[in-house]
Amino acid sequence: MTDMDTDMDLGGADGDAEVTFADVFRDALRRRGLSLERVRDRLEAQGIGVSLATLSYWQRGRSQPERARSLRAVDALEDILALPAGALRSLLRPGRPRGRTTSELLDLSASHRVFGENSDVEQALGADFARFNEDVTSLVIHETVHLDEERCIRQLSVNQVLRATRDGASRMTAVHVIDDPATASVDVTVRCGKLGRVEFLPERQSIVTEILFGGELAKNETVVADYTISLTPSREVSTYHERRTRVSLREYLLHVYFHPDALPVSCHRYYRERIGAEKASSRQIALDVSHSAHMLPPKCPAGIHGMSWEWPA
């Protein structure tokens, strides 16, 4: 259950009161006898994905369309609702400034703290690094890693719950740094969400993957992304896996499966507050009967959470 502000019915306002986008949108829906579900379906038929929550927020005046895709939806809504051209667009207030605000600069500082200055992630994203997943924040992350008999990571699966930090969020970007620069290719499979662009950058030992949500989220709406990255055979022995997070997570689970013919002599979980810092809270982890080890920190603050392992001499 999500707590929301009490709805306000603006339909009975005085005649000299300012007419808003929400007023006209709500009145047009009532006159046409259309539900938000039917409006969403008609938008989708035109290739415009807008969530029910977003339409509801527009109808109640809790938010307004701002992004390019949302403005396309507004133009389509005028036709769907039999309104004159510009009847809705003309009522939109000036959008938020899209420049570098103080909060964005702070986010960039947080990114540098956990990824490092001029990191592989920043080089892989280029100019987009400054807006790296600015519309969403991670809540829960479960990662499963599989190593082969050559002691190399062959597969990484990620199940992630995210929350929209603003209206209009429609995708997330994941950047994974791989061990072996000689890896020839990668395969990405998405189980929850839809695969967008994939960039394999062997010169930077990085994989950039875009997961599409299939529509726009309203602020505070949650979404699940579930995907697997499979690597071609490599010869670089893996000794650790870590997750760098700019925000505190509600939960982070890392589960590492070792091949029965290649078992480590010890495993440790660790935490670092920032890139380059000494490992803190290092603790040994035992392998279970499935030849796997896992870590589930009781708290997961921003920083670097990881597991390392040692191989027999």
Automatic annotation (TrEMBL):
Q: What protein name is recorded for this chain?
A: XRE family transcriptional regulator
Species of provenance = Streptomyces camponoticapitis
